[in-house]
Specification:
- This protein has 180 residues and is mainly beta.
- The protein has one domain (2-179): Beta Barrel (Porin), CATH 2.40.160.20.
- It is 12% helix and 65% strand.
- Strands 1-2-3-4-5-6-7-10 form an eight-stranded antiparallel beta barrel.
- The two termini are 37 Å apart.
Length: 180
């Protein structure tokens, strides 16, 4: 009887540990933060961005998530505020258990002070698991279509439409995630 109880306890602990390991990489929360300050045309310029993010693995190769970016720019003579909702799907290709490349397809929908934003595209990235609960990810570039529409009767009334590849440093993004 003692052996049976001991065996069942060992089996239960093994199942719980295995389930916990699986769960620890199933969903994530995290995001990115940024702040910059400088001078442009003899005017002090500062900006910030906050990017909370939630996602989940659909299987071993695919994940999906959504990021909300809130950005503010202060030009000294005025401010410019912006928000973007960015749902995405990622395809992961593992190099090891802790290091994976991914391709991300995303949709951008947002707006701000007298403007609206729409975009659809793809970007490459890498993700490294520091532990089973923490990882870091980075993306660079954007291949796709973006449209910024400024509302009528504003000082900057115009539509900006772009299709192409952006690979400058302004498209570099780092994120930290907690997996549960």
């Amino acid at each position: 009887m003692k052996k049976l109880v001991l065996l069942m306890t060992f089996a239960l602990i093994t199942l719980c540990v295995h389930a916990q390991q699986k769960e620890s990489k199933n969903m994530w929360i995290g995001g990115s933060l940024g702040f910059s300050s400088g001078e442009s045309d003899e005017t002090n310029v500062s900006s910030y961005n906050i990017g909370p993010e939630w996602g989940m693995m659909l299987n071993d190769d695919f994940g999906a998530g959504v990021k909300l970016t809130i950005r503010g720019d202060d030009y000294g003579s005025g401010t410019d505020n912006l928000w973007i909702i960015n749902p995405y799907v990622r395809y992961y290709k593992g190099i090891s258990d802790n290091f994976k490349f991914f391709a991300e397809g995303s949709l951008l929908v947002g707006g701000g002070d007298n403007r609206s934003i729409f975009g659809i595209g793809a970007r490459p990235g890498v993700q490294y698991w520091l532990t089973s609960r923490w990882s870091m990810a980075s993306t660079l570039g954007f291949l796709g279509y973006r449209k910024v529409t400024h509302e009528k009767d504003t000082p900057h009334e115009f539509d900006d439409k772009k299709f192409g590849l952006d690979l400058d440093m302004s498209t570099l993004d780092f994120s930290l995630y907690y997996h549960f």
